[in-house]
Structures are given as structure tokens and as C-alpha cells.
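Design job #97: recover the sequence.
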């Protein structure tokens, strides 16, 4: 880009003072400043558009790579399942039924945390499965009540 030093700017200012004159120089300087500001904003907008398009292209490439990896993984899993199924079918055809059941017996049993959800995961469902007569006998609140409504409900007659 063009490199302006202090000496070059002073020379340009002196020439502009002589050519334009001292009366019109402030208006011209203001107009030039406004135009330079607009030019800088336009350049920054174009630059941000270019950056966004480059990032979008990179994201599309990453997405396409992930899709192909998932597709390849799916094919390899399907191939492994097909091989295991054919091996199981081959052992069942040979009459070795005991070996297939021992295969399932040899598998480790998963712990509670490996299976899935924690204990309080579905507590709302479990509370709603409790019978209404039991909730009434135990005094479980089924609806939200204000303090005044609760006092009025339990006030002795």
C-alpha cells in the first residue's frame, strides 16, 4: 500500500493550501475525510463478506468429510454385523448350538451406570404412576395452592 510519512503529508497539505486556498480548504478536508471513512467501511464490509464465504466453504468441507466418515463407519458396522450373523448361522447349521449360547453367557454384564439413566431421571413419571387414593391418604399435594388457600382448606370448622 502507499506509505505516507509526515514529510509527504506536509508537502501535500502545502500544495493543497496553495491550490485550493485557505477559505475552501476546511470544507474540502471535511469532504475528503467523509469519503475516506465511507471507503474504509466499504472495504471492511467486503473483507468480512470474503471471510464469511471462506469460513462457509471450510464448514461445508468439514461437513462433507464428516458425512463420508459416518457413511464409511455405517458400511463397516453393517459388514461386521453381516459377518457375525453369517458366523452364527454357520455354527447353528453345524449343530453347535451350545457354542452360540456360551457366546452370550461369556459376555460381561453391564453395570447400572453403563446401562443408562440415573435413578431420579423419571421422577415425575413415577409420581404420576402412584394411585390417587394413595396420594390422598399420604397427604401428597397434587396442585399448587397459595398459603391463604391452604389455611382455609385446613381450618377447623
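Job complete. Output follows.
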Amino acid at each position: 500500500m502507499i506509505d505516507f510519512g509526515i514529510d509527504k503529508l506536509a508537502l501535500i497539505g502545502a500544495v493543497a493550501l496553495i491550490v485550493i486556498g485557505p477559505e475552501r480548504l476546511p470544507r474540502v478536508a471535511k469532504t475528503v475525510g467523509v469519503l475516506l471513512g465511507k471507503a474504509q467501511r466499504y472495504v471492511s464490509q467486503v473483507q468480512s463478506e470474503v471471510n464469511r464465504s471462506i469460513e462457509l466453504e471450510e464448514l461445508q468441507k468439514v461437513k462433507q468429510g464428516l458425512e463420508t466418515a459416518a457413511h464409511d463407519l455405517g458400511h463397516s458396522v453393517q459388514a461386521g454385523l453381516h459377518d457375525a450373523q453369517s458366523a452364527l448361522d454357520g455354527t447353528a447349521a453345524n449343530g453347535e448350538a451350545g457354542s452360540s449360547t456360551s457366546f452370550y453367557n461369556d459376555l460381561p454384564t453391564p453395570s447400572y451406570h453403563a446401562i443408562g439413566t440415573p435413578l431420579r431421571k423419571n421422577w415425575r413419571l413415577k409420581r404420576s404412576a402412584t394411585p390417587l387414593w394413595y396420594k390422598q391418604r399420604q397427604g401428597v399435594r397434587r396442585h399448587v395452592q397459595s398459603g391463604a388457600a391452604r389455611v382455609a382448606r385446613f381450618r377447623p370448622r
